[in-house]
Amino acid sequence: xxxxxLFFSQKLRQTESAAAGLSLMxxxxxxxxxxxxxxxxxxxxxxxxxGPGNNGGDALITASLLQQAGKTILLRLTSPSITADxxxxxxxxxxxxxxxxxxxxxxxxxxxDGLFGLGLNRAPSEADGQIxxxxxxxxxPIIALDxxxxxxxxxxxxxxxxxxxxxxxSFISHKPGLFTARGCDVCGEISLHDLQIxxxxxxxxxxxxxxxxxxxxxxxxxxPDSHKGxxxxxxxxxxxxxxxxxxxxxGRAALHxxxxxxxxxxxDKTLSADPVQPELMLHSAEEALQHPALSFMLTGPGLGxxxxxxxxxxxxxxxxxxxxxxxxxxxxxxxxxxxxxxxxERSSPSIITPHPAEAARLLHTSxxxxxxxxxxxxxxxxxxxxxxxxxxxxxxxxxxxxxxxINASGNAALASAGQGDVLxxxxxxxxxxGLKPLDAVQSGCWLHGRAADDWRRAHxxxxxxxxxxxxxxxxxxxNQVLGAY
Length: 485
Known about the structure:
The chain folds into 2 domains: about 5-205, 3-Layer(aba) Sandwich (Rossmann fold), CATH 3.40.50; about 215-480, UDP-N-acetylmuramoyl-L-alanine:D-glutamate ligase (3-Layer(aba) Sandwich). Helices cover about 40% and strands about 15% of the residues. It is built from 17 helices and 17 strands. The longest helix has 22 residues, at about 435-460. It is elongated and about 80 Å long. The termini are close together. Keywords: ATP-binding, Isomerase, Lyase, Metal-binding, Multifunctional enzyme, NAD, NADP, Nucleotide-binding, Potassium. Belongs to the NnrE/AIBP family.
């Protein structure tokens, strides 16, 4: 299966220039009008908000075609068109007898957002924000042309007012900002309309949307002549007093996703066995760090910030094993120049899986700065810590410092305690079974999200998914994917 290419606005502008002779504005208008007539045939009164640029031109063409189809169009042009194509579109609108209005109407069956498009790189003005608020207050479905106004196409940030669309009609290609950060909240359903641009006019993609499980998961199919040692031994280091649950969740997830053995190294060795998952081998952290069978190490779930935790992290980074750092390990790493240098010197693969606040500590910046450009933050983290990165959150970003992808699976049901521990256990198991770091991160992130998507089919409001439940759904998703190989 092919994942969707993602392009930053600069490359999309290049594509538009290369396809300049193809009447792209007219094609966008035709695609929009056709889609609206198909999906909202009963909408008779349609409010169209058009800005001065090419996005406004797309809206003007759409308005003209919908009016020709018998719809009542209430068109508001916020300021005179400034591009040649948009001026031509407005002239065509006037030539068909189209009129404009000066304020938001009192009622509409449907609204079309064509205020700002791909090129917006600032917060909308206060006046534009009031216009956008008026559109939103209509309470009718809103169709955003190319991207909801106020959303940054490259980053998914929305530094000011932003339209919350019911559906976004993305033109030419998908943009990263549609699928991460605020884009996940404001785009509604998204459909792609490539405007029939020939494939050879597209440059190389900047990144990809992970719509499907990576093909590398096929490597996990098991040979008949194998045994538990064939599938790796994961060591999970953490479990400080009062936090052993995080370590148990990560270990259970690793077992269910196929690790041959899982050893837990607990700072608080109160537990001698896991009664729910007796297959787990529980040791003290000191014992587990020296376990001769370990092939992959996960450090951080429930680790805490004690001197013992810091010593465990230091030994983990010094280990020759492939390593995943999560949770408390990341906070300790962020506060230590010594450990940062040790990470940069590691010769074995490293993975880090921060959420935005942890990423901010690792980058010595604010959470807001991380969220303002999640892709750039992930790339910087990977380069600074010489690691493969999973920047968690809505539209999780996976990067090895050179390439990046945005995960398309998952939903807000995952906003519950322990889900990060389960995710790190999933990734650790995949890596222990032989997947390369980026493949393990992309696969693990996708499976974790797919588990929540499968659960939500039975619980459509998305409330109450526990981390423990997620584990079995992730295992089912993995086996379903492998059934296609």
